[in-house]
Design brief:
Number of helices: 23
CATH architecture: Up-down Bundle
Order of helices and strands: HEEHHHHHHHHHHHHHHHHHHHHHH
CATH class: Mainly Alpha
Radius of gyration: 21 Å
Shape: globular
Distance between the termini: 28 Å
Largest sheet: 2 strands, antiparallel
Length: about 450
Amino acid sequence: MTDDNKKSRLLVTREGVSYVLPFIVVTCCFALWGFANDITNPMVKAFSKIFRMSVTDGTLVQVAFYGGYFCMALPAALFIRRHTFRSGIVMGLALYALGVLLFIPAWAMGSFAPFLLAYFILTCGLSFLETTANPYILLMGDRETATRRLNLAQSFNPIGSLAGMFVAMHFIQARLSPLDTAQRATLDDAQFEALKQSDLAVLVQPYALLGIVILALLAVMLLVRIPALRQTSRTGREPLLPAVRRLLSNKPYRRGVVAQFFYVGAQITCWTFIIQYGTRVFMAEGMTEQAAEVLSQRYNIVAMVLFCVMRFINIALMKYVKPGRLMAFFAAVALVLLCGVILVGGRTGMCCLVAVSACMSLMFPTIYGIALGGVQEDAELGSAGLIMAILGGSLLPALQAMIIDSQVTVLPSVNLSFIVPAVCFVVVMLYGIRHSRA
């Protein structure tokens, strides 16, 4: 077979039928949930400041965000078993748009809880999209190239993430009031309420525009012919228990769910608390809190550029190196870099933290592809389990925030808090080693 034929097989043809257009449309969803993830990470700091809360209270944003993933993944899988992948994507986009547009009444109410509800509904939609789109991409071509194809589609996720970071930095963080946390604490109730409403208006505007973009993509999904595709001939009426038993008896899948839980926890902790880490570093150099936050977000954008570039490099490397072995190597490198974050600190530690993103780029789709590799007949439910594992992005940042708020360590507490992602990368490394030996 020629190289051109191999390329076309990777770029989604199946049994002589071209899936290039469906691939492009579905891949847009990858960019959209990347945008949602990375416009949200800086909001932990933003909401903490706007509502005068602790870092731990601010992480309720992540609890609501990733809690939606957990709660909706299994219902999404059952929905897809009864209907089609296309129906799942349409439902996901509808819930995503609803959650984003709920930011407008949340702003009018002026309290934190409605925003948490909006984030939860938003991510119920994202859970539908991820539970649907990932196995859908795996189906669009030959099984031998499925993991590489998913890595290709996932490469557009960090492009959306970069857009989310850019919007967060230039259209939210830079436009919020320059009053720092200490200065806000001195305001009386009337002054604080006026400032809060002004800052919330700044925060809501990008989300309202995002809602329009999502509705436009939803219209495309309804108008363009997208193949329905089912994973197998099994119907949604098949009893659920036998499928669950098959999944639980599959060791690579079980371990993959655990690895995914810890990987997502590592990713979200590194990307969420890079702002807190950088703010501490740059304020120690004499910057104001707002200037330090904006500079930290620039470092975060550099991290995402590295993540994006390395995703494409790793797609090429997987032609020559086993995915599990490659993942184990990068997990080990990330572990070394986090030691620099914890022990060295300063700008050197910040550069180490940025470099961790280069190591993470292949992990989510690779764990996903490996775990689903032997469960084709139950891929919908298998996908749901892997998406539910995103709960790690809800629980582990809260644990890291508790370490930051403790302020009782010999090392700066922000530095020491990165022990949490370090432990996560140990789990990912062991999973990669096990798979490469299998």
